[in-house]
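Exam prep: given the inputs below (a chain plus 2-acetamido-2-deoxy-beta-D-glucopyranose), describe the expected output before reading on.
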Amino acid sequence: MVCLTLAALGILAAVQFSLAQRGAGKCQWAALRMQTDIYIESQTSGEVDPLLTSSSPVYRENYKQRDINTSFLTTPLKIDYTRTFVDQRDCKTYSQLIVANPKNPYIIGTQITYDNTGSAGLKAKIIDVVISRPSTEPQFNATKTLAYVDAEDWSVIVTAKQDSRDLLKMVANSYLDLWSGNGNFELPWGTPCARLEGSEYYTEECQPVSLNGKANTDRRYVVDEGLGAVSVFSKGGSDGTLLDIHEFRLVQGKLRYVHHFTASDAASVV
Ligand SMILES: *[C@@H]1O[C@H](CO)[C@@H](O)[C@H](O)[C@H]1NC(C)=O
Ligand SMILES: *[C@@H]1O[C@H](CO)[C@@H](O)[C@H](O)[C@H]1NC(C)=O
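Solution:
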């Protein structure tokens, strides 16, 4: 009797310990995914669902703060394609949204940071939207971009074959460091590999030519081990002010896909 009770207490203590550890910053996959779907539904309808956010969320478009109630989120969009990365450790998500409509196309990357409010569930506390439009990219063609990304394999990687968070982030950072002068090293390219630059797709020359320029700074990450995926928002370009969206997919240590989009300047966003 006594032994059983002690063993049971031991198990209880172990469970409590692991719950306490998981509680710190770790969010449930399904809850993150569900909230992010609410974000996508809000953008589709142009009506900000009150379930999405905490009472005073930070909402940014191309790194500029805006009032969410009069933001781009209130522009209804017919979204043709979405892909979401889920970062349980940092309680964040990244979604790519493509609107292919040739008359009014958009490629949008959104990183959302959630707050675990307990009984009220997850609430978005920071929404970072980066919007790419034809103004900045002469070759911009969202229909082409959509066809390329739609043909790619972004299936979930079984746990035993997943790369570590540290490796995913290291490879993403190495790629972004190509531009900061000490670049020009070989990355662990997969065979095959592909690099999407806006609407241009490169499968032979996956490694970009890294002309010396400014380092990509102000990097914001979302890391999804299950998809081998990393989303990074950063500032780059020759004068260090262009906003970039990068998406990476690594499969068993090999870089399979790199996607890069450049933000339009804020004035031309809506
Ligand atoms: C946006 O509108 C909602 C619902 O009307 C309101 O609760 C919220 O305070 C508003 N947010 C801002 C930043 O004004
Ligand atoms: C965009 O790409 C699609 C598919 O490749 C093509 O049919 C269309 O003509 C292109 N649009 C423009 C404006 O180049």
